[in-house]
Amino acid sequence: MTVQKKKLRVLIGKLGLDGHDRGAKIIARALRDAGMEVIFTGLRKTPQDITRIAVEEDVDVIGISLLSGAHETLLPELCRLLKENDAGDIAVIVGGIIPKDDIPVLKQAGVKAVFGPGDTTKEIIKYVRSIETNE
Amino acid sequence: MNSSEKTQRDNSIFELVDRMLNGSVRALGRLITLIENEVPGSLEALKKIYYHTKDAYVIGLTGAPGTGKSTLVDRIAVEIRRQGFNVGIVAIDPSSPFTGGAFLGDRVRMMSTSKDNDIYIRSMGTRGSLGGLSEATASTVKILDAFGKDFILIETAGTGQAEVDVIKETDTTVVVCVPGLGDEIQTMKAGMMEIGDIFVVNKADLKDADRLAGDIETMLHMGYESKEWIPPIIKTIATKGTGVVTLVGEILNHREYLVKSDLLKSKKVRRIKQEIMEIAKNKIIDKINNSSKGANQVSDALLNEIMLREKDPYTAAEEIVDNFAEIFRKSTI
Question: What is the pTM of this model?
């Protein structure tokens, strides 16, 4: 077996009580079309749910869509749980409505990148691919 | 990425095998990825894993897209767990023939199992396989078996009439049908309608569910005398859990039938034989593809000759095989 068949596996999920999933679906579709395997979780997941799915599916990247305003509670908790479950190496990226002032707190907690309105799917694909090459 | 994280990713595949056998879900997940990606050492790892497998019982669910397979798998898994067994799930969705990407959405429907951390779910893309499974399904089943799962549920990608690979990997095959997809002529077709050990009419609250069940029954009775096991037809409403206990009961009945009739053993023997041939075949193809001489590459010049009718494709293929035989004599695989 000499040919490696590595594919980027990306979890795209909605964290917390937030039913707006159009953005998550657009990102999932864009990553799919960029040749990645996207594991879509559906709505209203807890940090525990996301951690479990990420570990079972062994994803390279977790993309969280969050528009509810609960990012400062839920994302640090997700990052903490990932570390606790020996999965701190999985990159967490976030998209949605995140005030600029909150970004440093999220990065401090372990979030690798934050995307918002105006960022293109192209940029996101490029970023996700760069995570792989950094490994 | 800092150095300790780096180390974590660089875990050797053999260390992962040990950690997986000791119950680490993280290692289990990593291992499936590495083996699916066929990283160097995969075959060596699988050799070791094989000795830890215990013949987990494998149940396959197949059927058209949108028939409710994921929801059913979710409910079946919970019911089997309730009976005290360990369950693993392999859920397959199609990979793009254009980009290789995949949208793996089966977990969205697996809401009940998400409350039970002891059920392991893995989503996989077909990655070019056309029979409803992914190439790494058999290996993944073995890993889950070695991990300690008693029952493994395989959910195929949505299938049509001819994608019947699932029967090669499963002990019990459940074909999931829904009303509204055609008349009784569809039940007469070869392929999908032949492979069910159990038929499910899901969405049984829809109009024509009884008619579909009747059509399947009629179809099954036409081959009645030649069969010891007559596939039961179970009506379910997966979203409400209706019929799921009966369905699991029939799956267990089928298992008992296979054990008593010794068919389970012959199924497993056949599976092993087929797997050995498959692995050998892949190794030979790899060998041809990686031949250092390059003589096996189909060159543009050769293709041109064939296009101009100066040579035929059959002779070209024979030459590759003859050439391979020579390489084979000179080296080990």
Answer: 0.89
Residue extents of the structural domains in chain B: 1-52, 53-270, 291-330
Give B1's contacts in chain A (Cβ within 8 Å).
Answer: 89, 134-135
> A9-134: which CATH architecture?
3-Layer(aba) Sandwich (3.40)
Find residue A64's DSSP bridge partners. A13, A94
pLDDT for A133 equals 61
Which ipTM value was assigned to this complex?
A: 0.91
Cα separation, B213 vs B234, whole angstroms: 8
Pick the CATH number of B53-270 from 3.40.50.300, 3.15.10.40, 3.40.630.30, 3.40.50.970: 3.40.50.300
Strand B151-155 relative to strand B57-63: parallel, antiparallel, unpaired?
A: parallel
Query: CA-CA distances (angstroms) from residue B316 to B291, B296, B308, B309, B310?
Result: 16, 10, 14, 12, 11
Q: What is the pLDDT of residues B4-33, one digit of tens each?
A: 444 444 469 999 999 999 999 999 999 999
Residues of chain A with a CB closer than 8 angstroms to some CB in chain B: 1-7, 9, 28-29, 31-42, 49, 52-53, 55-58, 85-89, 134-135
- The beta-carbon neighbor of A39 closest among B33, B99, B107 is B107
* B100 reaches A (C-beta below 8 A): yes
The answer to whether the beta carbons of residues B152 and B87 sit under 8 Å apart is: yes
Contact criterion met (CB below 8 Å) for B100 and A35: yes
